[in-house]
Amino acid sequence: MVKCLQHILTHSKMLPSRGPLMFILLVLSGTCVPSTALLGRNVDDLLQFWSDAQTKATSSGLEILFKNNATSKTSLLAGWLAHGKVTTDMVACELPGELKDQGQCLEWTNGWRVESFWKNLGRLNTVTGLQCSTVHWRPPQDGAGQETPEDCYNMTGFYWFGGFESSSQVWPINTFQANSSAFITGDTYQSFMYGGVLEGMFLSSSGVGIYVDETTPLYLSVNQAGSHMLCLKGKVGANTPFFNVPQAFLKYDICKAANLLELWRGVSEVYLPKPAVVPSSDVLRHPVWTTWASYKENINDSTVLEFAEDVLKNNFSISQLEIDDRWTPHYGDFVFDNQTFSGAANLIKNLTQKGIVTTVWMHPFLNTDSNAFRELSAKGYLIQELNSSRPHVVTWWRGSAGVIDVTNPDAVKWYLEKVKALRDAYNVTSFKFDAGEISWIGGPYKLSNQLAHPNYLTRTYIEMTFLADTDQRRQEVRVGYRSQASTLMVRMLDRQSDWSNTLGLKTLIPCALVFGFMGYPYVLPDMIGGNAYGPNPDSELFVRWLQATVFMPVLQFSITPWSYNATVLELTGKYIRLHEQYADKIVDLADHAQKTGEPINRPLWWLDPEDTTALQLDSEFLLGDDLLVAPVLEQGARSRDIYLPKGQWRDELRGRVVQGGAWIRNYPASLEELPYFTKIG
User: Fold this and answer.
1) Which ranges carry the Glycoside hydrolase family 31 TIM barrel domain (predicted)?
2) How far is CA 521 from CA 384, 494, 624, in A?
């Protein structure tokens, strides 16, 4: 292998003054054979990655260091191809077909081969400055390839931002820890490492990042056993979610731009779909009120009407009222229960007359005791067992059920007809769509139309929900996978009513930032105060939670402010009005997001991607580019430290102008106060 690397070094000297470009490509693939086709091209016409690289064969894999220049002591990206594998049993190979002259290939004696080739971005390279190359592990030709070699990249020295929701959401992901797990949409309440909103997109503050091909059967580990590494491999087999993929492969792009912000913009432009539409401006301006946290499943005509009347009696605005679980006689029979909602049509008519829009809770499950389960079983509209026509019965949080097969156009038509019937019969306006994670589907199953990746089932479910309300666009989901174009509001997974870093208050800002990072700008930060699965939140937690979400796109209440004292009631009105005061700005940013994909709530490094302090902050955020929010997130705290990026900022609580690029230590913030600042220069 040493001779191989010396051979590469020799040929790299054949290049023009910007020749290290060619060297990088050869090193990335690990080949000993320079590409004469590339050697003969004008280097200026190629996408130049890094101006220098160092590599060596080790017992831990092919180590690669990418640097800005030959004298730099800091690597922009350090990693190992085939981490943990011996690198002496490699030979050069030839790229297939049209890629033959576009890159390099290296094959291990066990049949695994890794290919590297330039990704032609055309005009986008000029516009965004983005430069990318593809790494592709292909399986042995004998078919005996269920797990690829693992590629690992060191996160040390830079801040990394990754594309997944999790129960212990962190920003950046350097301190996150996860063993190698299937990168499928999961409900973290089921102890899945990765949540319901995923994007194989991992960008670092060095300006270098990784984007994983969406069809890769990816297993991802982050900082496993304190390794400080991001590790990728492809894995298939009967005991994996990728049971129907015949052979493993791993394909991803390594991209570089001038800095993290330009990297995000370039990667977003190349890989992420943009939202097709914007949610109703009504839900961006005024709070959503939902029955769930206050009433759980103990709802009926009277409780819903009382809830709505209390909202109005306390002079709170309302964009829509959600009737959550449980309004149906059986889960899957999408009609109102005549026992608890005997006057559902009149109830919703009454709410409509009061100016209240009504939405209801929906899901993809049809419990085995429902009429719909029997009907759809006979029609073949449910996901089926792998080798039979019997329904694939799953266990979810409300019992045993079949799951609508959203790959079957007839099943989708049936579901949407039920949605339309609800709208026609009861004047329901829109829907809260729950679940959609692959983790609820469980073991091997059969679909009407096979999908290239299990996460596509999540995406197809979202595409169906997108069609459920094409008039007012008030629907919400809680999952996402390459579904930015078909998604409106994306709700965070149920939050716990506590101050913790595990689904508690401290996870709100990191989760909102991650959603926006992944291309989902219309963030619904679940219910103010959490879901109250234990005791209700105390008044301090309720108020601080409200303050943390005021400048997010949507406010959502369920725990009732009037169940606290007069101070809480007054503060709730104050902060609802503050949200409404900035509603025009939020709506404008929502329109901008639809055009550009840019988040509404942005990390502080959006203003300066070289600011190492801003890169670390997970307790402050921006609304657009000029409003900084720093809520108090610690129990009992009446002050906090606040960092302001460079520039001049107007302190909206104190009315003074503050010079940025520095900390304000021990900024006082009573329970009544939310610190926020406007950038004025």
Assistant:
1) 292-580
2) 35, 19, 11
Which phi and psi (to 5°) does residue 348 adopt?
-70, -35
- The type of residue at 137 is W
User: What domains lie within the chain, and their CATH numbers?
Assistant: 1-93 (no CATH), 119-271 (2.60.40), 281-362+409-437+452-597 (3.20.20.80), 604-679 (2.60.40.1180)
Phi, psi at 99, each rounded to 5° = -85, -5
State pLDDT tens for residues 554-571: 999 999 999 999 999 999
Q: How far apart are CA 138 and CA 131, in angstroms?
A: 23
What is the CB neighbour count within 10 angstroms for residue 594? 17
Do the Cβ atoms of 158 and 206 come closer than 8 Å?
A: yes
**SS3 call for 640:** strand
What's the pLDDT tens digit per position in 4-42?
333 333 333 222 222 222 223 333 333 333 332 322 222
CB distance 433 to 403 below 8 Å: no
Supply the mean pLDDT for the chain.
Answer: 90
CA 419/CA 216 separation, integer angstroms: 34
Q: Give residue 340's Cα distance to chain centre.
A: 37
Average pLDDT of the residues in 585-610: 99
Structure tokens belonging to residue 465:
């929900």
Q: Which tokens hold the place of 367?
A: 């419990």
Indicate if the alpha-carbon torsion angle 364, 368, 371, 373 is positive or negative: positive
Pick from 250, 143, 262: nearest CA to 204: 262
User: What is the Cα–Cα distance from 522 to 477, expressed in whole angstroms?
Assistant: 11
Residue 434 contacts residue 478 (beta carbons within 8 Å): yes
Q: Give the separation between CA 281 and CA 489, rounded to whole angstroms.
A: 12
Query: In which residue are the tokens 């329904």 written?
Result: 391
Task: Tell me the DSSP string of 212-275.
Answer: E-TTS-EEEEESGGG--EEEEEEB-STTSTTTT-SS--EEEEEEE-SSHHHHHHHHHHHHPPPP
Structure tokens at 632: 């108090």
Contact 526, 493 (CB under 8 A): yes
For residue range 606-650, list pLDDT tens digits in order.
999 999 999 999 999 999 999 999 999 999 999 999 999 999 999
Cut 0.85: pTM above it: yes
Distances (CA, A) of 444 to 31, 97, 220, 609: 39, 34, 21, 44
Per residue in 160-201, pLDDT (tens digit) is 999 999 999 999 999 999 999 999 999 999 989 999 999 999
Q: Are 55 and 90 in contact (CB under 8 A)?
A: no
Distance, CA of 418 to CA of 395 (rounded, Å): 23
Spacing of C-alpha 8 from chain mean position: 40
Find, among 235, 212, 233, 215, the residue nearest to 224 by Cα: 233
The number of beta carbons lying within 10 Å of the beta carbon of residue 272 is 20
